[in-house]
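Readers of this paper often ask what the protein records in our data store actually look like. Such a record has a labelled line for the sequence and another for the backbone structure tokens. Nothing more is needed to write down the fold, since each code stands for a local backbone conformation. The record that follows is passed on verbatim for readers who wish to inspect the format.
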Amino acid sequence: MADKIDWEGFGRDLLEVWPVRDVEGSELFDAALRNGLIREIPGGYDPEQHIDSEGIYPEPGDPWFEFTFGHKRDERDG
């Protein structure tokens, strides 16, 4: 995981692909993870703590990711 969100790196990753073809979902996910926009939660999915708003029906312990930015300012983002 990146120590700080790298918005420029994220944009660069996407623009390396986009002029030639559409960006695949897996490429978008990997770029977001590599550049610190999302992070994997240790221990994975916990139904007592996480809301499955996307309707993917994870099992407890399945890999779970969340945004590193949003409602409260992330101190790693400057």
The chain has one domain: 7-73. The helical segments are 7-17, 25-34. The first strand starts at residue 38 and ends at 40.
